[in-house]
């Protein structure tokens, strides 16, 4: 695995992506006027790192040892590339990665109880970011586990190609594919591809990327490419995404004939756009263009569009990723990226940081009452946008 290449790419502050060379466009900077804000961001990251270090458990985990993905997110947030010579940080990272390695299962997944796919994907990203050669075998087994989670020929064909939480210890209603798990899996699998040595041929099972794109397409409110009965005809929904085909956390609107049309919402639309980017769908594809148009029309830092405060910090996290890496949102004339979005998001996150260096959502849905989880989201977002100020 080409860990030096990954470390070089990660040093830029970008998350691990396939189209790094062709599909990354930085927001134009505004010169020295944002130097003060960059300093504030640096301080916020330092305070966040101090909070995470003191929040680490003796076994090396963070927050909930039953869900190692939270530890993986904390490790991703504690960027060793920014402060490589801090002994306390090095010690925290060492304990954290030892904990993650200890969660590796005989089936190749990295999990303990439940949410096996999600935990494996996040932990794989953390191990790839760390870049230790000793983890290469563990990462390859995790990659094969993730590939094995892709749905194929299941009883609900509209879910084929997607990936869910995984079968381990999860209630039946959470075993089916969804866009969020598909997103994190596509990110991890594309990162594994980047880690290959130049000229190295893939071995073992491979993801069906076309099937994954088809699943993502079936999550989009876009009549031209999605013929599902629930697809909304409302301009306010067009181009946006839902959680999985047939269900939206933003609810539904009633049609005159009594049928339901699902509403689009912020987090899943950023997830949909990112999924298309990881799958290398061209930036001028109508699905990408329509997603960008929805995000442009609904851009706000005051809420997660369609859900209010629910999942707000995950929304910020996905926004920072999507607006940092998607070529489509930066192309001339789209108007998709409001001028100064990076500065505004940085100011918002710096302002929301608590006195102890953490961040937390007063709305606790989707675990956002967990200060470790939310702090990791915010630190990754700030890391991604710092150089774009």
Note down, in words, how this protein is organized.
With 389 residues, the protein is mainly alpha-helical. It is 45% helix and 2% strand. It has 13 helices and 2 strands, in the order ααααααααββααααα. It has helices spanning 3-10, 35-55, 68-77, 87-102, 116-130, 136-148, 179-194, 209-217, 266-278, 286-297, 312-325, 341-352, 371-385; strands at residues 252-254, 260-262. A hairpin with a 5-residue loop joins β1 (252-254) and β2. The longest helix has 21 residues, at 35-55. The radius of gyration is 20 Å and the shape is globular.
Summary, kept brief:
The chain has 13 helices and 2 strands; from the N terminus they run ααααααααββααααα. By secondary structure, it is mainly α. The chain has a two-stranded antiparallel ribbon.
CATH A-level architecture: Alpha/alpha barrel
As residue ranges, the low-confidence spans are 4-32
Biggest sheet, spatial arrangement of strands: 1-2
Rounded Rg: 20 Å
Distance between the termini: 33 Å
CATH-derived topology:
Glycosyltransferase
Query: Helix amount, in percent?
Result: 40-55%
CATH class: Mainly Alpha
Sum up the overall morphology in one term: globular
Report the β-strand fraction as a percent range: under 5%
What is the domain tally?
Answer: 1
Q: What is the N-to-C order of secondary-structure elements (H for helix, E for strand)?
A: HHHHHHHHEEHHHHH
Q: What's the mean pLDDT score? A: 87
Q: Biggest β-sheet: count, sense, barrel?
A: 2 strands, antiparallel
Structural class: mainly alpha
The strand count comes to 2
Number of separate helices? 13
């Amino acid at each position: 695995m080409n860990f030096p290449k990954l470390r070089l790419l990660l040093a830029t502050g970008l998350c691990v992506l396939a189209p790094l060379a062709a599909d990354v466009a930085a927001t134009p900077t505004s010169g020295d006027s944002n130097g003060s804000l960059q300093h504030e961001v640096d301080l916020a990251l330092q305070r966040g790192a101090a909070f995470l270090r003191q929040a680490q458990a003796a076994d090396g985990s963070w927050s909930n040892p039953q869900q190692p993905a939270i530890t993986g997110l904390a490790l991703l947030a504690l960027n060793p590339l920014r402060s490589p010579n801090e002994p306390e940080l090095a010690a925290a990272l060492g304990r954290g990665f030892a904990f993650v390695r200890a969660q590796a299962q005989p089936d190749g997944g990295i999990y303990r109880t439940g949410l096996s796919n999600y935990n494996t994907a996040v932990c794989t990203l953390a191990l790839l970011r760390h870049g230790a050669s000793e983890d290469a075998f563990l990462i390859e087994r995790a990659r094969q586990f993730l590939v094995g989670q892709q749905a194929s020929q299941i009883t609900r064909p509209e879910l084929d190609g997607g990936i869910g939480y995984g079968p381990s210890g999860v209630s039946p209603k959470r075993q089916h594919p969804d866009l969020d798990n598909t997103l994190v899996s596509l990110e991890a699998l594309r990162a594994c591809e980047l880690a290959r040595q130049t000229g190295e041929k893939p071995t073992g099972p491979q993801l069906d990327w076309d099937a994954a794109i088809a699943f993502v397409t079936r999550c989009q409110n876009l009549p031209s490419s999605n013929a599902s009965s629930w697809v909304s005809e409302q301009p306010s929904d067009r181009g946006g995404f839902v959680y999985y085909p047939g269900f939206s956390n933003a609810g539904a609107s009633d049609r005159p004939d009594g049928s339901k049309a699902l509403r689009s919402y912020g987090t899943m639309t950023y997830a949909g756009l990112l999924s298309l980017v990881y799958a290398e769908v061209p930036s001028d594809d109508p699905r990408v263009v329509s997603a960008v148009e929805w995000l442009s029309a609904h851009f706000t830092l005051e809420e997660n569009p369609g859900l209010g405060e629910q999942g707000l910090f995950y929304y910020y996290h996905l926004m920072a990723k999507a607006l940092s890496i998607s070529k489509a949102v930066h192309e001339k004339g789209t108007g998709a990226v409001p001028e100064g979005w990076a500065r505004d998001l940085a100011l918002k996150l710096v302002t929301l940081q608590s006195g102890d260096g953490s961040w937390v959502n007063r709305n606790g849905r989707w675990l956002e009452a967990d200060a470790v989880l939310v702090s990791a989201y915010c630190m990754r977002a700030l890391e991604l946008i710092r150089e774009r100020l």
